[in-house]
Each structure stands twice: as C-alpha cells, then as structure tokens.
C-alpha cells in the first residue's frame, strides 16, 4: 500500500473509475488500483505530480502538454508492448488543486528492476546476453514505433519495463511514455535551475545520458537518448547490477560524462565481441556516435545474434 497523498481512495473519478487503494508512489506519479464502472474491469489510475516549483503559468502549460501527449500515448498504446491507455483527464485533490491522470490497463507482472534484484538476492548468476536481448527486444520494438512517430521516452530504466503476464504469455511492456517530456514543458530557465537544485529531475540520473545533464555541451535529447538508456539496461542485465552506481546527482553526472564508458566487459561481464560492441556504441558519450533511434538499434541487435561485430561498428546510425 502506498500513501494516498492526493486523497482519492474511496472516490469515483469523473463518474467512471472507482479508486480502491493506493499501490505506489514514484518520483513523477502516484498509482492507484481502480475499477472502471463501465468496462467492469480493474484498471490502474496514474496521477501525475505537478512539481511544486511550477508557477501558475508553468502548471497550465504542463496540463496542456499532458493532454497533448495523452493523445499520442493512446496511439502508441496500440502496440502490444506499450501499456494501454483508456482515458485521461484531471481531477481535484483533497487539497483543492487539480492534477492530471491516466487510466491504464491493469497489469500483473514484475518490473525488470525487481526481477534483477530478486535474482541477485537469490544468488543467481546474471542473465546471458541472449536472454537480455530476448527480454528487451519487445520493448525496443515498441520504442522504435514511438521514434517513428517523433516521440522519445527520455526516462527508460528497469522500473519502467514490466514483464507482464498476458494471455499470450509473459511480455515486456514499456511504462511512462511522455511523462518526462511533459514535466519539462513550460519551465523557464530559472524554474529549471530550481528544479535541478531542489533535487527534482525529469529523468532518472542513474540512467541519464550526457545530454540530459549538460545539453549545452552535449546537444539536445532525442531518440538517441533512449538508445543510451537501453544500452545501460542491457549492460545491467548481463552484469547483474546497475551500470552506474552513485549516491548523489553529481556522482551520476560524473559517470555520465566520463570518457570511460560503462560497458559489460568494463564491469566484469563475459560477453561476445558483438554484444560488447553493441553496448559500447549505445552508451557512446557523443550522441552522434550512437545508433540514432531504436530502429537502427533493432537491426544491430539482429546482427549480435548472428555475431557480426564488424557490421555493428560500421552500421548506419
């Protein structure tokens, strides 16, 4: 059970969704278990936190951008590996402010970070590169669709990848598309500085790319930012622990911009030349040296399975 910070448990949102209990809270949102009265099905209600440093103008921009992103999320959710979106809106909290929400399909399963932690606690070896590629491929395919539609996730990490139990069997699902981007809309430079100094970030520093920390030096974020995160996730799966470990934001900044890149072999994993080359290119410090989108990454993943290292090194970005 999570902390019902918005005071929604026991209420019915927009006469559609009965809110039964709070199941968790993250940096961006609070998630509730609900029941859709018309569909007569359990659903997840994800309520986004409007950052406290947003002024009224930024809050309005955030809500408007969220509604815009929600329409695209609905299109994306037709992909089997992206959590389905049923509805969106905004609701008044117990405090009297309004927050945006998404009504999502209810998923049973295990987040990738929980799976990796459980295996580590049980003393099991890290997964193989073949298992890593098989696990992540459906998610990369879903992200490739988003990139074709001009959308980058910008906050990919193991806790946003859910191994869901479906009628077709277990399937990796991508969570939280669009949230990080919506968080950044409407901010002034001063507000962005306040966000950073207060410890709030529209991405997870442990999985951040150089351009997310220092955009002026390393360029804009985009699909290549997701490729970087996928490289870190693949590395974590075969190593058995996160590729970047630190205590504070500054620690992750130093790791993200370092010339020494976190690859499987640099962290002690025994992997093929092709897999090491794939991960090294994904996490290149200069975004132009990475695969430029998930479509290119998928082609490289195919090459890994065939053991074609030279092609991966020379493949078009």
Please characterize this protein's 3D structure:
The protein is of the alpha+beta class and 317 residues long. The protein has two domains: 12-105, Phosphorylase Kinase, domain 1 (2-Layer Sandwich), CATH 3.30.200.20; 109-190 and 205-314, Orthogonal Bundle (Transferase(Phosphotransferase), domain 1). It is built from twelve helices and nine strands. The protein has helices at residues 56-76, 112-121, 129-148, 179-184, 189-197, 210-213, 215-218, 223-239, 249-257, 273-282, 294-306, 309-314, and strands spanning 12-13, 17-25, 29-36, 41-48, 85-92, 98-105, 109-111, 161-166, 169-174. Strands 1-2-3-4-6-5 form a six-stranded antiparallel β-sheet, with helices on one face. The protein has a three-stranded antiparallel β-sheet with strand order 7-8-9. Strand 1 and strand 2 (17-25) form a beta hairpin. The chain is globular. The N and C termini lie far apart (44 Å). 42% of the residues are buried. The model is unreliable at 185-200 (pLDDT under 50).
Shape: globular
Mean pLDDT: 88
Specify the oligomeric state.
Answer: single chain
* Rg over CA atoms: 20 Å
Spatially, the strands of the biggest sheet line up as: 1-2-3-4-6-5
State the CATH class of the largest domain. Answer: Mainly Alpha
Give the termini distance in whole angstroms: 44 Å
Question: β content, as a range?
Answer: 15-25%
Structural class: alpha+beta
What is the helix/strand order?
Answer: EEEEHEEEHHEEHHHHHHHHH
């Amino acid at each position: 059970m999570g902390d019902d910070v918005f005071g929604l448990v026991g209420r019915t949102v927009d006469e559609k969704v009965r809110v039964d209990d709070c199941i968790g809270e993250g940096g961006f949102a609070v998630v509730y278990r609900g029941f859709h009265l018309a569909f007569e099905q359990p659903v997840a209600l994800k309520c986004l936190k409007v950052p406290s440093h947003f002024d009224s103008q930024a809050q309005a921009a955030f809500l408007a951008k969220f509604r815009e992103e929600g329409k695209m999320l609905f299109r994306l959710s037709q992909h089997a590996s992206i959590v389905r979106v049923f509805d969106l809106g905004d609701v008044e909290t117990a405090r009297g402010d309004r927050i945006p929400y998404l009504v999502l399909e209810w998923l049973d399963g295990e987040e990738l970070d929980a799976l990796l932690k459980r295996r580590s606690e049980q003393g099991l070896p890290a997964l193989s590169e073949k298992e890593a590629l098989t696990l992540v491929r459906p998610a990369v395919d879903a992200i490739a669709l988003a990139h074709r539609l001009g959308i980058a996730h910008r906050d990919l990490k193991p806790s946003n990848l859910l191994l869901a139990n479906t009628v077709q069997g277990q399937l990796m699902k991508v969570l939280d598309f669009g949230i990080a981007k919506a968080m950044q809309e409407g901010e002034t430079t001063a507000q962005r500085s306040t966000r950073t100094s207060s410890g709030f970030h529209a991405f997870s520093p442990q999985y951040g790319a150089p351009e997310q920390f220092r955009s002026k030096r390393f360029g804009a974020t985009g699909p290549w930012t997701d490729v970087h995160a996928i490289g870190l996730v693949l590395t974590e799966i075969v190593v058995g622990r996160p590729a970047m470990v630190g205590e504070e934001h500054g620690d992750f900044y130093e790791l993200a911009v370092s010339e020494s890149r976190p690859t499987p072999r640099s962290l002690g994993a025994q992997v093929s030349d092709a897999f090491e080359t794939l991960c090294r290119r994904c996490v290149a410090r200069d975004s132009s040296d990475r695969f430029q989108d998930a479509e290119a990454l998928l082609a490289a993943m195919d090459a890994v399975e065939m053991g074609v290292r030279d092609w991966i090194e020379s493949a078009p970005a």
